[in-house]
Design goal:
The complex is a heterodimer of chains A (about 375) and B (about 400). Chain A is α/β, with parallel strands linked by helices. Chain A has helices at about 15-25, 35-55, 70-85, 100, 105-110, 125-135, 155-165, 240-255, 255-275, 300-310, 330-335, 340-345, 355-375, and strands at about 5, 65, 90, 115, 140-145, 170-175, 195-200, 210-215, 280, 290-295, 315, 315-320, 345-350. A 7-stranded mixed sheet of chain A has the order 2-8-7-6-5-3-4, sandwiched between helices. Chain A has a 4-stranded antiparallel sheet with strand order 9-10-13-12, with helices on one face. The chains are: A alpha/beta (about 375), B alpha/beta (about 400).
Chain lengths: ~375, ~400
């Protein structure tokens, strides 16, 4: 049995999504900008997908801009808002994804001042300290909805409300790549101006994402060209990807709460199962997304544990897949105070709606068998 | 750029060989043929200590042809040549065009002629003089500057009169060394690092055909580490006309060492067993030596004492061409041969995963041999590892 517990890295596409992408590529190949009927047909497919994605977060279709993925959405939100605003100050958190973190040096070089709202040992933003950071010239706050490494759900609704109370002109952006499809998002209930989402984290195709931009919010494009998508994001639309994303958004948001509850139960079951071992540290806090469990196994190198599990067809991640190209310890785990030695042994399990109780039990069994064996051989 | 009609390949050392020379030349011709075969049809012929390579198909990629020739050991220089009619007018015009196509401004040049066809009416010095004059006139006419220097010219224009006339104005350095297949066969211990591919390249340069042995330790080393080694073998293989790579499962042996031997001796014992496995594989393939990337003092397992212990495990000669080189020197070669970018990918190999905190830097052979006695039936484990080896034939 293959046990895929790396859903925060990417997910297995829904069968319906694969079919929709294939059908669109083979049968609906027009350019949405073309004036003839093939173009109109493609444009209609994009429009339907836009409605599907919009309705998953209770937005209007006109508020959705399709991008190449979460990274581009984050870049567009930050750089686009900076270019359109006169403010010089931005607030974010120390736990953001590299798609945010790596944009900050560029903003700093352009003269922007960036402050990091402090987080507690759970990785949760401290609201009092955050509130004090907001300045009259703050133009943007960006905070992630769900942390990709440890699964903390950040109080973004409260953060947005506080911001609007203290500085109504400032924009609020959230990177919801890990939260979308797992945690309900309703743009009518929260004063969030921009939301980054990604398709392949919700069983859609890779290379697809979107940025929700609240109506009336002016941002500047970062990609220039033929003026597609209201000139915010030029480039011929990736029609098959968009159609696949639409189908995935629709399926993922159906019965979201029921699915999330089921995932949360399985997640808790996994947590209890690995807690049978001594010398471990559960890095995921109580207030977490339903699908992420980050655990440090003392005396074990995470890479070795990962490959040992892989030999039993159990697929997990060491820390975060995005940072496994690098050798430095996870900055997220460092920030929340996990000791260096424990960081070296940290594994992220991430579930999906397809995860079953049998798979979880098999994983618990495997971890409980492998970890003591690896500890015996550890010599560091 | 002037269109190249053929390439003259000059070889150095081989020309000095005595009675065996035809064998070396034939090997070199075979290697040139196999290096160029994927690009299309070529005629490869030998005459007067030069190999003539001529593209027979239309549209053969000239840049790729030169790139491939640059990787054939045994070639000292590659001279792209332009063919023209065997008459003075045509020779002068072609030579002038060749120089005009180069970066000649302010440089000096000289014309040299080889007249194989003695029926040609002018003698070599006369031809050189006339062609030199034509080049000067053409450059002047184009508004440029060039001067003659017969002693130390920047540009050497060579005119060869044979069945046709050939003009060579450019000389590209080849890989040097000896043709692969002329120097026997050896087994390279290939890790994913910087040193071992360089060591393999240096030995192959002397005409040695290579087999490679890699030790794979799942789950302690990942599939990506193995892919990286395959990539490195492919890079080497572009010089060595193919490599047979053995991926030897090594986990059980490593775990046995860890369980039964003192921790500070792990690395030495592991390396000694690697030597024994590599040697058995070498014997199977008719290899007469092992090759490693070791360099004195680079890490704890490469001190003089450690090398003494490792070396004692092998019965056949072990060549360590990097032994006296600094890391910078090894890195420079790694970059030159195009392996560096692959070597520095951060996947752990089996040598780095079980590094003890305080390895013995001055191990004693008798102590090591004593410690090895605690291993569980190592002979059987070695046999099992060799049987389980995956053989990847890299072309």
């Amino acid at each position: 049995m293959e046990v895929y517990l790396d859903n925060s890295a990417t997910t297995k596409p829904y069968g319906e999504v694969c079919a929709a992408v294939f059908d669109t590529m083979s049968g609906n190949y027009g350019n949405p900008s073309s004036l003839h009927s093939l173009g109109i047909e493609a444009e209609r497919a994009v429009k339907t997908a836009k409605e599907q994605v919009a309705s998953a977060i209770k937005a209007a279709p006109g508020e959705i801009i399709f991008t190449s993925g979460g990274t581009e959405s984050d870049n567009l939100a930050l750089l686009g808002a900076a270019a359109a605003s006169r403010g010089r100050h931005m607030i974010t958190t120390p736990l953001e994804h590299p798609a945010i973190m790596s944009v900050l040096p560029e903003l700093r070089a352009k003269g922007y001042k960036i402050d990091f709202a402090p987080v507690d040992e759970n990785g949760c933003v401290k609201l009092d300290a955050y509130e004090k950071m907001i300045r009259p010239d703050t133009f943007l706050v960006s905070a992630m909805l769900v942390n990709n490494e440890i699964g903390t759900v950040e109080p973004v609704a409260e953060m947005a409300s506080i911001l609007k109370r203290k500085n109504p002109r400032a924009l609020f952006h959230t990177d919801a790549v890990q939260g979308f499809g797992k945690v309900p998002i309703d743009v009518r209930k929260t004063p969030i101006d921009m939301i980054s989402i990604s398709s392949h984290k919700i069983h859609g195709p890779k290379g697809m994402g979107a940025l929700y931009i609240r109506k009336g919010t002016g941002i500047k494009p970062i990609i220039h060209g033929g003026g597609q998508q209201g000139n915010i994001r030029s480039g011929t639309e990736n029609v098959p990807g968009i159609v696949g994303f639409g189908a995935a958004a629709k399926l993922a948001s159906q019965d979201l709460e029921k699915k999330a509850e089921r995932m949360a139960t399985l997640r808790k079951r996994l947590e209890n199962g690995v807690r049978q071992l001594d010398n471990i540290r559960v890095n995921t806090p109580e207030n977490c997304a339903p699908h992420i469990l980050n655990v440090s196994f003392g005396g074990v190198r995470s890479e070795v544990l990962l490959h040992s599990l892989e030999m039993q067809k159990i697929f997990v991640s060491s820390g975060s897949a995005c940072s496994s190209h690098k050798k430095e310890p996870s900055y997220v785990l460092t920030e929340i105070g996990v000791p260096r030695k424990m960081i070296d042994g940290s594994i992220r399990f991430s579930l999906s709606e397809f995860t079953t109780a049998e798979q979880i039990d098999e994983t618990i069994q495997a971890v409980n068998k492998i970890v003591p064996r690896l500890r015996r051989l550890n010599m560091r | 750029m002037q269109k190249t009609d053929l390439y003259l390949l000059k070889y150095g050392e081989i020309a000095l060989k005595g009675l065996n020379r035809p064998k070396f030349e034939q090997k070199l011709i075979d290697n040139v043929n196999s290096a160029l075969a994927p690009l299309g049809k070529f005629s490869v012929k030998k005459a007067q200590s030069t190999i003539y390579v001529e593209a027979l198909d239309e549209d053969i990629d000239g840049i790729e042809t030169v790139e491939r020739l640059k990787k054939v050991f045994g070639i000292v220089n590659i001279c792209p040549a332009t063919r023209c009619e065997k008459g003075m007018d045509s020779i002068k015009e072609t030579a002038a065009r060749c120089v005009l196509g180069m970066d000649y401004e302010g440089k000096s040049f000289k014309v040299e002629t080889k007249r194989e066809d003695k029926r040609f009416p002018l003698k070599s010095p006369e031809i050189s003089r006339e062609v030199g004059g034509a080049v000067l006139r053409a450059v002047n006419k184009a508004g440029g500057k060039i001067k003659v220097d017969v002693h130390d010219p920047d540009i050497l224009v060579q005119v060869e009169i044979r069945d046709s006339a050939y003009i060579v104005a450019d000389i590209i350095s080849g890989a040097g060394g000896m043709p692969i297949g002329s120097g026997g066969r050896a087994a390279l211990l290939l890790s994913g690092g910087i040193d071992s591919p360089v060591a393999g390249w240096m030995i192959a340069k002397r005409g040695v055909t290579l087999d490679a042995v890699y030790f794979h330790s799942p789950p302690y080393t990942s599939e990506r580490a193995k892919d990286k080694v395959v990539d490195l073998a492919k890079i080497l293989s572009s010089y060595t006309r193919g490599i047979r790579l053995y991926s030897v499962p090594f986990t059980d042996i490593q775990l046995d060492i860890i369980d039964n031997c003192p921790k500070n001796m792990l690395t030495i014992i592991m390396r000694r067993i690697m030597m024994r496995i590599a040697e058995k594989i070498a014997v199977k393939n008719g290899d007469m030596a092992l090759v490693t990337g070791e360099s004195i003092g680079q890490v704890a397992s490469q001190t003089m004492e450690a090398l003494y212990c490792t070396d004692a495990a092998a019965g056949m000669p072990v060549f360590r061409p990097c032994i006296g080189m600094d890391k910078e020197e090894i890195t420079a070669i790694s970059k030159k041969i195009g392996a560096y970018e692959t070597s520095i990918q951060p996947y752990e190999d089996c040598c780095t995963i079980f590094v003890p905190k305080h390895p013995k830097t001055k191990p004693r052979l008798d102590e090591i041999i004593e410690a090895e006695k605690s291993l569980t039936d190592i002979e059987t484990m070695i046999e099992k590892a060799i049987e389980g080896a995956e053989i990847i034939n890299i072309k």
